[in-house]
Amino acid sequence: MKPVIAIVGRPNVGKSTLFNRLTKSRDAIVADFAGLTRDRHYGDGHLGDREFIVIDTGGFEPDSSTGIVKEMAKQTRQAVAEADVVIFVVDVRAGLSAQDHDIANYLRTVGKKVLLAINKAEGMQESPHLAEFYELGMGEPHPISSAHGQGIRSLTEAALEDF
Ligand code: GDP
Ligand code: MG
User: Residues with beta carbon inside 6 Å of ligand 1?
Assistant: First the structure.
């Protein structure tokens, strides 16, 4: 079984950009994975010869009956339930938000390995803003730039290290 990595975080932090960066083939092959729904938010990734599955979240189809917040929470819960490891993405340019704290509090309850990815950190490795993310209590943050491909390899290695 390939390890499954879920990408979670509030809207606009760069989850889908990271997903695209991690997945080489856009058409995910998920038929072999019992229990995983066929869904366009699954993709295949690899690090050298190590293969993994990535789940993007937040491709919401806002629905008046549930609303976007509930739909987001549902997608996040489903992805986290299927995942072996979670990448929690935050945005260093926007800074820490109440929604980030809510997601962190939720992730603390699920008993899975969580990696905190500080996205949009291109050229900001020395930024004082990086420090505030320690407040989330999610361990050592991984500065990345999904758009520019920085920090992605070391994040992926950390995600896969137990597999
Ligand atoms: P999602 O809503 O979390 O899936 O976020 P998206 O992947 O759609 O990205 C939201 C916005 O952030 C887009 O305009 C992206 O181009 C931008 N973005 C994503 N990653 C980076 C990054 O590493 N650096 C910068 N500067 N912008 C980024
Ligand atoms: Mg997205």
Answer: 9, 11-17, 58, 119-120, 122, 145-148
